[in-house]
Fold Choline monooxygenase, chloroplastic.
Amino acid sequence: MSFGVALFLRSPEPIPKTLNWRSYSPSPNRRLQISPVYVSYSTLPFAKDRASGAGDVRRMLEDFDPTIPLPEALTPPSSWYTDPSFFALEFERVFFRGWQVVGYIEQVKSPNDFFTGRLGNVEFVVCRDASGELYAFHNVCRHHASILASGSGQRSCFECPYHGWTYGLDGQLLRATRITGIKNFNKNDFGLLPLNVASWGPFVLINVDKNMPIKQKVSSDVVGNDWLGSASQILSANGIDTSLEYVCRRKYTIECNWKVFCDNYLDGGYHVVYAHGGLSSGLKLDSYTTRIYEKVSIQSCESAPAESNDLDRLGSKALYAFVYPNFMINRYGPWMDTNLALPLGPNKCQVIFDYFLDSSMLNDEEFIERSLKESETVQMEDVTLCEGVQKGLESPAYCSGRYAPSIEMAMHHFHCLHHACLRDE
């Protein structure tokens, strides 16, 4: 399967807000392969000749060696963050395989709730039927391929806006209009095409892998094991659950590769003291720890005592969980926020922040507004950082860098996982 640079991820429609808050080594002599639109170097940091061919993904993968110990390892070559062919392969072997978060239980909490979205070129709809069963389908009418539903809300059935073909929330074709005289037609063969769907904690996930048998209803224990591995129990024990109330969503479009945002998240707090003055004053960065699991890394840090009697949004300890490939869960004080990094192109991504809060705090509008404003400040500082990194990755002065071994182990883990998934044919 091959996918071009036009492929993108689009998040599901925003959840109706509970509250209406304001928006506010390999050898240094190895050759590194990059698409010819970028300069490539055969030695670090500089080289003499240009890459010989475009889209040589195999060579790009070979330019990172996950077996080299972290203190000696080089980071992936810049082509991982700039080359369109590499970007296309990521959809085929990463985003179109395995479980992907697409929404939250809040969006399909009641019978007849639904929401829609897009994963690469896969249009999908997630819904809960009248009996409470959760379903996901390709959001494409079986008649002439019209997109069937849009947005989110409540429906008792899906009626195609093009020719009126109608489907139940279980996917069955209920009505095919004006087909008098049609031959060799069995409406049971023209239901919506199903997708694997599951929930874990507050999250809704789908799996669009064409090689995975359609089970539709996958238990939370199964998806938890597949998606989170041994970290699932740790996350559950640390307040990643359905007890929190959904508050609001923020979206950021960033001029950088999606992995740049993930790398920034995974540097073990390295950049916090330099880039986030307000945040660093509220954290005890010398308490920073990182734990590595199969597909998850968990960073944690104690908070500094608040200087006033005002409620501190960070609480006594912050936990930052990265779930491969692109989902981040932040649990601190009465808050949980999640970050979903959605690729829009080799050098562009959208990051979706969703905020959840302890129900006891829902009426404290001043606290909520102040907390969201503080979070927004940190995000805009990260946007500036990530866009600057992308410009550097696209310059002729850079190919690969080095890891800080004592703090960037989660970033190295992410790169090794990504390498393994991309090599898996």
